[in-house]
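Long-time lurker, finally posting.

We've been working with Secretion system C-terminal sorting domain-containing protein (marine sediment metagenome) and I want a structural starting point before designing mutants. I don't trust myself to interpret raw outputs, so I'm hoping someone here can both generate the structure tokens and explain anything notable. Sequence follows.
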Amino acid sequence: CVPGYEQEYFVLWDISGTRVGTYQGNCIGTDLASGIYFLRPVDSSENPIQIIKLR
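Top reply, 14 upvotes:
Generated this for you. Predicted structure of Secretion system C-terminal sorting domain-containing protein:
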């Protein structure tokens, strides 16, 4: 879950740069393997990227 962004959508990429999918802020990582992922809001015209680590 991304606190404060539960209703927003995000695009995720894995560490190799492969697009993993689009997820809603309240269910990011529910079907992903452990690892490091890059996260960007879907509706962003800029490239603010956050790195997340799933365990």
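Before you design anything, note these points.
The chain has a mean pLDDT of 83.
Strands lie at 9-14, 19-24, 35-41, 50-54.
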